[in-house]
């Protein structure tokens, strides 16, 4: 693989079908440069789906993860930075969740106010790795490492 950053997700489908349409990451159609992986559940999914559809957005699935991607794309198309859009999402999207977002030049992570979903971070001069469990990071980062557990409601963004 070539590139500077990427995201992936192995998930247990709780709300959507187990098929390719429910596979992560989700793109914010037609904004192909914003992708999201998400662990958790948005409790105001239907509110945001109707609101975003009224604003002209189309959805490719019935998965709540796609709401996050489209939400961020809409905020960024209005001029918000990725970090600002993610901070706004923490105020407006309800539920228990963590998510990662990538754009062409940035990687962001967000952890909801309840911090019910796990998220572990490792950062060095060479790599930023985020996973739901430390063991996943240890598989790609050799040697002894120190990881960080982001705080409740925390948003972090890295830009190339």
TrEMBL record:
Q: Which UniProt keywords apply?
A: Glutamine amidotransferase, Transferase
Q: In this protein, which residues make up the domain named Glutamine amidotransferase type-2? A: 1-160
| GO MF annotations, alphabetized | transferase activity
Q: What is this protein called?
A: Unannotated protein
Q: Which organism is it from?
A: freshwater metagenome
């Amino acid at each position: 693989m070539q590139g500077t950053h990427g995201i992936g997700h192995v998930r247990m489908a709780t709300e959507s079908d187990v098929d390719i349409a429910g596979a992560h990451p989700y793109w914010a159609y037609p904004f192909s440069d914003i992708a999201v992986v998400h662990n958790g559940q948005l409790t105001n999914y239907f509110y945001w789906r109707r609101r975003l559809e009224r604003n002209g957005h189309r959805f490719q699935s019935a998965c709540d993860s796609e709401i996050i991607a489209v939400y961020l794309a809409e905020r960024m198309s209005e001029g918000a930075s990725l970090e600002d859009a993610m901070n706004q999402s923490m105020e407006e999207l309800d539920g228990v969740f963590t998510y990662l977002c990538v754009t062409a030049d940035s990687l962001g992570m967000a952890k909801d106010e309840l911090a019910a979903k796990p998220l572990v971070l490792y950062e060095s001069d060479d790599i930023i790795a985020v996973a739901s469990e430390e063991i996943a990071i240890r598989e790609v980062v050799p040697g002894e490492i120190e990881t960080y557990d982001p705080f409740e409601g925390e948003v972090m963004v890295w830009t190339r």
